[in-house]
Design a protein that fits this description.
The complex is a heterotrimer of chains A (about 350), B (about 280) and C (about 280). Chain B is mostly helical. Chain B contains twelve helices and no strands. Chain B has one domain: MetI-like (MetI-like fold), CATH 1.10.3720.10. In chain B, about 75% of the residues lie in helices and about 0% in strands. Chain C has about 280 residues and is of the alpha/beta class. Chain C is built from twelve helices and ten strands. In chain C, about 50% of the residues are buried. Chains in contact: A-B, A-C, B-C. Chains B and C meet through helix 8, helix 9 and helix 12 of B and helix 4 and helix 7 of C. Bound molecules: adenosine-5'-triphosphate, iron/sulfur cluster and magnesium ion. Chain C: This is ABC transporter ATP-binding protein.
């Protein structure tokens, strides 16, 4: 049913490749009568265009990984989708991740690939690297063994890896090479959509730029879209076209990277950007006070209100909607005033 | 304590079944204190009576009521099994945790003993003890011997858990917070070792009861004290199967199976309950 | 000048590999530096994973003995600390901060247990009120109070708060030196600053020297007085922070310096485009 992808009409290019609408995904647990619900993804809507790199930023346990897992359709209990939808558009064919399970399965790796957090360690330590390629990609590509091998080798070469790595075991490779490999694995089928969770966080500083350039290069060559998550703002600065800022399970701001960095509209984003240290600058940075919200019992109204310097009474009771403003979208009752401050 | 029991009964079906089964068997065993006849008296009842309204589980060829024999037998067998399990758990925890945490010379010394004991064959050792002790051989002595034989594998397991805990940051932090070795072992590490203790306790109990049955069936125990193994021993002596006195063998075996099942269900559910991860989740982590 | 901490030509080798391919790994090679007792400072050790910085920290804390060379703390060899009493005495002056605040506290133990234990053991306090007072005072230094921490578990607090409690705990014995191994690598940018700001304050108000171990050049520049850069066990460059990080001269430090992306989309994306052209 997805065979028509190759000759896509020009008009579909303009349509977004991913539409997430009102998505809610909660961890629902029951431990001997103690019921807990962690609202890790709470009413998120976003769209991603073709040929775009979209970065999701936010502090630890704000729900970034949960959001991206839900988008990838890779959730397992206790995480459950409570409301909303995730729809991909692969060459004019709409694919609803949570309504069309079998089609989704078929789309994995071929149209869509997912690089998990810490995935440089997912390679099976006792099997040679070539087996991983075979397991993940072979059946999706419809090639003979020989053609497949040739394709994998030329792909690895293009991303700067010696094809001989196929004959080695994961522990014989450095962290940087393993991360390249997982990216190679995720891109060998030339998917239209790549989902990545913290692709560079575990890497040594010296190889970080290379891996980022690699991701950008692969994306440009194949014209695919990428959605990735990291708390490292410099990574967003380096490769993202647009950024979404997540706070306590909600998308609080979104916009083109340059605008988010230079004219943040949400107080949380403004703080995040202002606190980044730079070499050559020892001016004192003020840290955000208070405690990150507990997603099992989030603050009422705007979830940022207990820590927000601009909070007013209304913020405590009413949740600000995510509305279009300037070049992006922002969820704050006092959005205009942040820029002035 | 009561609240934990209530929670477990209400939310965990395995626990509820295991609890009811074990409790029923326990009450049944407890009843032997009120038995109409002493459990070592023989030929007071008509022998070889099949199950009937008067003798629910029939009578043995030695003129005993199978029902009351079983009640005593389960009690004695459980007493033996639990003694072995508790003693050997204490040994395994002490050796495993000290060896794993202190390491170095201590570890070498304790693990040498441990590995030597692993190499010793159980049954021959027990028989040796039996022949040496002869008349002084009583069930507590047997239990002690079995306990001394039954801790080595589990000590190794606990050692490896402690070993990995020793390298965790919180242990190094505890050292710099001035905590003493006992404080670290009991407060910091024991909660993580607890599930291992419970899990192995179950295996150990089954092993101990099996050992008791084996030795009794072979006649190497105090045969006048009713135990599950002892009952089977006497039934064999009287060729109960051939003589068609099936109830003499079947009922004790069913009782053992039910007991194992009950204990097994209890062990897995309690294990889940005390598992640090599930504990943390209940605390709201 | 009297030295607080002296490292003299310190080396540490590890034997690695199995039975057949045994080899020696030189984790730390010829490291020497001195901290002044009168002039508290933030002394930063920068390096990638495997550069020997954690091994150096562990040797300073007495958890690891050097293969050769000496480490002296306040004139006394750290290797000579043997008895329990000497060890406690040493620990009351040198305290660690660990990498992962969520790992540094046992999740099944209340946080105050660590604080109380430290106060009892190192200050010799018996009386409950005195222990509470000492703990509260230390927590006040990091902007917390005992009332906020008492009876709480690690999962009830944020990474930044936990790391501050860890610092407070380390402060209770009144240490001269704090060794912090990657204290911010596990916390995100917004919490990072609250911890490094705290280090500055400790230096300025309490006169505690801090050995700050990190791979993050930006925070290193932000708070350090002096910096050494380690690479595969060697110190490749040492000196004042502005010089070493602002104008590195050694080839490796230069590479490290240029690997840091600025949090600025214009510059950062230009760097990546440049890299991309090179490939
Ligand atoms: N398997 C799980 N069961 C229950 N709760 C979970 C589970 N995984 C995550 N959570 C909770 O969901 C929330 C969001 O977690 P998530 O992993 O999405 O955060 P994150 O933003 O990716 O953080 P990080 O930057 O640390 O990777 C947290 O409160 C977390 O504790
Ligand atoms: S809505 Fe109110 S509390 Fe929330 S960010 Fe805006 S000003 Fe702050
Ligand atoms: Mg994550």
């Amino acid at each position: 049913m997805l065979a028509a992808v190759e000759n896509k009409p020009a008009s579909v290019e303009a349509k977004p490749v991913l539409r997430v609408e009102g998505l809610k995904a909660y961890y629902q647990m029951n431990y001997f009568g103690v019921r807990r619900e962690v609202r890790a993804v709470d009413d998120v809507s976003l769209t991603i265009k073709r040929n775009e790199i979209y970065g999701i930023a936010g502090e630890s346990s704000s729900g970034k990984s949960s959001l991206i897992k839900t988008i990838a359709g890779a959730i397992t209990p206790p995480l459950r989708v409570v409301e909303g939808s995730v729809k991909f558009d692969f060459g004019g064919k709409e694919l609803d991740v949570y309504a069309q399970r079998p089609a989704m399965k078929a789309a994995r790796w071929k149209h869509l690939s997912y690089v998990m957090q810490g995935s440089m360690n997912v390679l099976n330590p006792v099997r040679k690297v070539k087996h991983a390629f075979h397991d993940f990609a072979f059946k999706h590509m419809g090639l003979s063994e020989g053609e497949f091998r040739a394709r994998v080798e030329s792909h690895l070469q293009r991303i700067g890896l010696d094809p001989r790595v196929l004959e080695s075991y994961p522990h014989q490779l450095s962290g940087g090479m393993r991360q390249r490999l997982t990216i190679g694995l995720a891109t060998v089928c030339e998917p239209e959509f790549i989902i990545a969770d913290e692709p560079t966080t575990a890497l040594d500083v010296l190889v970080q730029q290379d891996v980022l350039a690699l991701i950008k290069g692969v994306q440009q060559r194949m014209g695919s879209s990428i959605i990735f998550v990291t708390h490292d703002m410099t990574v967003h600065a380096a490769i993202a076209d647009r950024i979404g800022i997540v706070y306590a399970g909600r998308l609080v701001e979104e916009g083109p990277t340059l605008d988010v960095f230079q004219r943040p509209q949400h107080p949380y984003t403004a703080h995040l950007i202002a606190s980044l240290p730079r070499i050559g600058d020892t001016r004192k940075r003020v840290a955000l006070g208070g405690k990150p919200p507990n997603l099992a019992d989030p603050p009422s109204g705007c979830r940022f209100h207990p820590r927000c310097p601009l909070a007013v009474d209304k913020c405590k009771s009413e949740n600000p909607p995510l509305l279009a403003r300037n070049t992006g979208r922002v969820a704050c009752w006092r959005a205009g005033e942040v820029e002035a401050a | 304590m009561f609240k934990i029991l209530r929670d477990l009964l209400r939310y965990n079906i395995e626990f509820a079944i295991g609890f009811v089964l074990t409790l029923a068997i326990f009450l049944f065993a407890l009843a032997h204190f009120w038995a109409p006849l002493p459990d070592n008296a023989i030929y007071l009842l008509p022998p070889d009576m099949p199950p009937s309204a008067q003798y629910w589980f029939g009578t043995t060829s030695r003129g005993q009521d199978v029902l009351w024999q079983m009640s005593s037998a389960i009690w004695n067998t459980m007493l033996f099994g639990l003694s072995v399990t508790i003693l050997s758990r204490l040994l395994a925890v002490a050796v495993g945790m000290i060896s794993g945490y202190l390491g170095g010379k201590w570890d070498e010394f304790l693990m040498t003993i441990n590995d030597t004991m692993i190499a010793l064959p159980n049954i021959p050792i027990l028989l040796l003890v039996y022949f040496v002790m002869r008349d002084q051989m009583s069930w507590p002595v047997l239990a002690l011997t079995a306990a001394l034989l039954g801790w080595n594998y589990d000590a190794r397991l606990i050692r490896s858990v402690t070993l990995s805990l020793r390298n965790r940051e919180f242990t190094r932090h505890a050292v710099f917070a001035g905590m003493s070795v006992p404080q670290i072992l009991v407060r910091q590490h024991l909660p993580y070792v607890m599930p291992v203790i419970f899990f192995t306790a179950m295996n150990n109990l089954i092993w101990a009861i099996g050992l008791e049955v084996t030795l009794s069936v072979l006649g190497f125990s105090d045969i006048n004290r009713p135990t599950i193994g002892g009952m089977i021993y006497w039934a064999n002596q009287h060729q109960a199967i051939i003589a068609g006195i099936w109830w003499w063998i079947a009922f004790p075996i069913i009782a053992v199976v039910l007991l194992f099942l009950g204990l097994f269900l209890l062990a897995i559910s309690v294990n889940e309950y005390i598992d640090p991860r599930s504990r943390l989740s209940r605390m709201g982590a | 000048m009297s030295a607080l901490l002296e490292l003299e030509d310190v080396n540490k080798d590890y034997r690695v590999g199995g039975f057949l391919d045994r080899s020696t790994l030189h984790a730390v090679k010829h490291v020497s530096f001195t901290l002044d007792a009168e002039k508290p400072e933030i002394f930063t050790v920068v390096g990638e994973s495997g550069s020997g910085k954690t091994t150096t920290a562990r040797m300073i804390l007495g958890n690891e003995t050097p293969t050769s060379g000496t480490l002296r703390f306040m004139g006394k060899g750290i290797a000579q600390v043997r008895t329990r009493k000497e060890r406690l005495d040493f620990m009351s002056r040198v305290q660690p901060i660990f990498q992962n605040p969520f790992e540094a506290f046992n999740p099944l133990t209340t946080l105050d247990y660590y604080l109380f234990s430290t106060a009892r053991r190192f200050l010799g306090l018996k009386d409950k009120a005195a222990v509470d007072a000492a703990t509260d005072k230390a927590l006040q230094h990091v902007g917390l109070s005992l009332a906020e921490v008492r009876g709480r578990y690690s999962h009830e607090l944020s990474g930044g708060q936990l790391q501050r409690i860890a610092v407070a705990r380390a402060l209770i014995p009144g240490p001269k030196l704090i060794v912090a191994d990657e204290p911010v690598s596990m916390v995100d940018a917004s919490l990072r600053m609250s911890i490094v700001n705290l280090f500055r304050e400790l230096r300025d108000t309490l006169g505690v020297s801090i050995i700050y171990i990190t791979h993050d050049l930006s925070t290193a520049y932000y708070i350090s007085d002096r910096v050494i850069i380690m690479h595969k066990g060697d110190v490749v460059e040492a000196g004042r922070a502005e010089e070493v990080l602002g104008n590195p001269t050694h080839e490796y430090s230069r590479a490290l310096r240029s690997a840091v992306l600025p949090p600025d989309p214009v510059v950062a994306s230009a760097i990546i485009r440049e890299k991309l052209r090179a490939i």
